[in-house]
């Protein structure tokens, strides 16, 4: 079935004219028709638009054009937080009403220039705030491996759609783990590049010093392919970094011999599900057999990461979400003056988690509290970042579980915000430090069968190394070939 | 650090979010709980530590001061709740 292919497999068959882009897109649309009622990964999608893009791709493929378009004819779905010209942009929220984007995000432009078919708005926690996709104003997404469970968040729709073969790959965003955690819980590959690797122009900002766009794919090679296409400095994003973009797919097969992998002693603490711990331990031993050297490292400020994040991210969010005021866009609720209009528009349009974080962020930045909270958190952020830089003097990459447990049930944590926050413990430091990280499948729990993710953390702009380690592991195991059973 | 007691009404006003009394009460309790957890940052030794605002601080990222094409007036207004004469309409600010 064409929707089950990887990017590599599909582009090979398209180039040989064994299949058409239209057939590939139709296969995805058919799968969406079959499983969406159980999964709800998409908020909305346009079959007509996707097929029109497919026809254009087929025209180009027929003339032999597209040698310079590595993604020609590949259907890729997009998290609802990224601007795609003329498509709805809602960020999983009610507040944006019928907003359609007047422009393409830079990452989207690059994918389109590479020939990709960009379709669909994937479900997410509202404004990327959440770890379960239960905070979407458009209903929850279900985990394809067990539809009574969450897919993770905030990019839950992006992870679920790839796991359920509703698209060949998807895009998500990661501010505190929102790509890696759902990737782990849904059994797919998810990567957060180093901060500044991919332009944030066209990504609706949550926390400007933490946000990054990243791919969800079925294999590491596909992730490397998408990273090559999307990376690079952008004059429209002054936080994008000038580092040259390596040929990520070219170094995947270099193996792991001679590489040192760090195991942070603070991470293997109580609170990890025994099955998760066992799967990760087994994976680490496997990597050792493949030739890597395992070294214990210490990240002493790990325990402060969640608290630091929830000050910095909420503070930045309170500033970034100030623009949703009903003036230039939004489902406006009228008031007798602008101040009342802002309050009513935001009160009606924002969900509970967004309100919680914006108010917390406003508080920690407010007069009298700024030094005690925000400034202190920024200093602890320095300590956390230095922990990683010091560890990377000894090792080439760090390996951890991605999450402490497999997917939990809908409603299990949504009543206690703090409990939900604590489930991000392994992914959150990566964003604070600005380094790169990815999650790939490393096993399953026994009953029910739920995916377990292995996380690799790399140096700033060290994506080549973690991709190479991940690819070596993936190709010597069969986890990436497993698919959920959906009828 | 201040005690974990937020004046939710005041902060919501700063954030320009109108809350119902039930929301105010519920949020107060939840935020108090979260702030209680955040207290642990007091234990970190931050003496002589520089704050990090950005992981890789770039400095003076500028471009030449030249006019370039940008979004059309029509595109900028396409999602406006109320517009006229190429402008956004808002409630009166000044009497």
What structural keywords apply?
heterodimer, A: alpha/beta, Amidase signature (AS) enzymes, eleven-stranded mixed beta sheet, 15 helices, 38% helix, B: 95 residues, mainly alpha, 4% strand
Outline the structure in words.
- The complex is a heterodimer of chains A (487) and B (95).
- Chain A has 487 residues and is α/β, with parallel strands linked by helices.
- Chain A has a domain at 2-249 and 471-481: Alpha-Beta Complex (Amidase signature (AS) enzymes).
- In chain A, 38% of the residues lie in helices and 13% in strands.
- An 11-stranded mixed β-sheet of chain A has the order 1-3-2-4-6-5-10-11-9-7-8, with helices on both faces.
- In chain A, strand 2, helix 4 (106-113) and strand 3 form a beta-alpha-beta unit.
- In chain A, helix 5 runs parallel beside helix 6 and helix 7 (220-230) runs antiparallel to helix 15.
- The radius of gyration of chain A is 21 Å and the shape is globular.
- Chain A starts with 6 loop residues before the first helix and ends in a 12-residue tail after the last helix.
- The model of chain A has no long low-confidence stretch (mean pLDDT 96).
- Chain B has 95 residues and is mostly helical.
- Chain B has a domain at 8-43: Orthogonal Bundle (Histone, subunit A).
- Chain B is flat and about 55 Å long.
- The two termini of chain B are 42 Å apart.
- Chain B is built from 3 helices and 2 strands.
- Chain B has helices spanning 8-14, 21-38, 73-77; strands at 83-84, 87-88.
- Chain B has a two-stranded antiparallel sheet.
- The chains are: A alpha/beta (487), B mainly alpha (95).
- At the A-B interface, helix 9, helix 10, helix 11, helix 12 and helix 13 of A face helix 1 and helix 2 of B.
């Amino acid at each position: 079935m064409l929707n089950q292919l990887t990017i590599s497999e599909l582009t090979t068959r398209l180039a040989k004219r064994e299949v058409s882009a239209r057939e590939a897109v139709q296969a995805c649309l058919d799968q969406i028709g079959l499983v969406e009622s159980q999964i709800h990964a998409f908020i909305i999608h346009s079959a007509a638009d996707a097929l029109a893009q497919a026809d254009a791709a087929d025209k180009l493929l027929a003339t032999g054009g597209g040698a310079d378009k590595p993604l020609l004819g590949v259907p890729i779905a997009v998290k609802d937080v990224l601007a795609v010209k003329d498509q709805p942009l809602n960020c999983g929220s009610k507040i944006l009403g019928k907003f359609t984007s007047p422009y393409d995000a830079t990452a989207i432009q690059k994918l389109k220039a590479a020939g990709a078919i960009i379709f669909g708005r994937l479900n997410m926690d509202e404004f990327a705030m959440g770890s379960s996709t239960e905070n979407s104003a458009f209903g929850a997404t279900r985990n394809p491996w067990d539809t009574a469970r969450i897919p993770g968040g905030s990019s839950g729709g992006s992870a679920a759609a790839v796991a359920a073969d509703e698209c060949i790959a998807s895009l998500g965003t990661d501010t505190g783990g929102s790509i890696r955690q759902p990737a782990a819980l849904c059994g797919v590959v998810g990567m957060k590049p180093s901060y500044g690797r991919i332009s944030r122009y066209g990504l609706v900002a949550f926390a400007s010093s933490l946000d990054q766009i990243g791919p969800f794919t079925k294999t590491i090679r596909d992730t490397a392919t998408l990273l090559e296409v999307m990376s690079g400095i952008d004059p429209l994003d002054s936080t994008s970094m000038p580092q040259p973009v390596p040929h990520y797919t070219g170094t995947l097969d270099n193996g792991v011999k001679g590489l040192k992998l760090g195991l942070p002693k603070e991470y293997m603490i109580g609170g990890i599900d025994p099955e998760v711990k066992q799967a990760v331990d087994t994976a680490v031993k496997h990597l050792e057999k493949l030739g890597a050297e395992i070294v214990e490292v210490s990240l002493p400020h790990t325990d402060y990461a969640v608290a630091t994040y929830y000050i910095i991210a909420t503070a930045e969010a309170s500033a970034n979400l100030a623009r949703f005021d009903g003036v230039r866009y939004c489902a406006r609720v009228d008031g007798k003056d602008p101040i009342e209009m802002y309050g009513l528009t935001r009160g009606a349009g924002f969900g509970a988690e967004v309100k919680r974080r914006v108010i917390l962020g406003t508080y920690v930045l407010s007069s009298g509290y700024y030094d005690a909270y925000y400034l202190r958190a920024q200093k602890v952020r320095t300590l956390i970042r230095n922990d990683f830089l010091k560890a990377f003097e000894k090792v080439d990459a760090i390996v951890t579980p991605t999450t402490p447990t497999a997917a939990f049930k809908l409603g299990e944590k949504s009543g206690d915000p703090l409990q939900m926050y604590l489930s991000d413990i392994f992914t959150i430091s990566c964003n604070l430090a600005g380094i790169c990280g990815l999650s790939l499948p490393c096993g399953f729990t026994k009953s029910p069968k739920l995916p377990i993710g292995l996380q690799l953390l790399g140096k700033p702009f060290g994506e080549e190394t973690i991709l190479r380690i991940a690819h070596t592991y993936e190709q010597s195991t069969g986890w990436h070939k497993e698919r959920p059973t959906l009828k | 650090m201040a005690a974990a007691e937020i004046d939710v009404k005041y902060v919501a006003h700063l954030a320009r979010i109108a809350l119902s009394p039930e929301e105010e009460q519920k949020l107060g309790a939840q935020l108090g709980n979260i702030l209680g957890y955040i207290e642990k940052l007091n234990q970190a030794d931050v003496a002589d530590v520089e704050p990090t605002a950005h992981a890789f601080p770039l400095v003076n990222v500028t471009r030449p001061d030249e006019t370039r094409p940008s979004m059309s007036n029509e595109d900028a207004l396409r999602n406006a709740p109320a517009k006229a004469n190429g402008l956004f309409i808002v409630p009166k600010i000044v009497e």
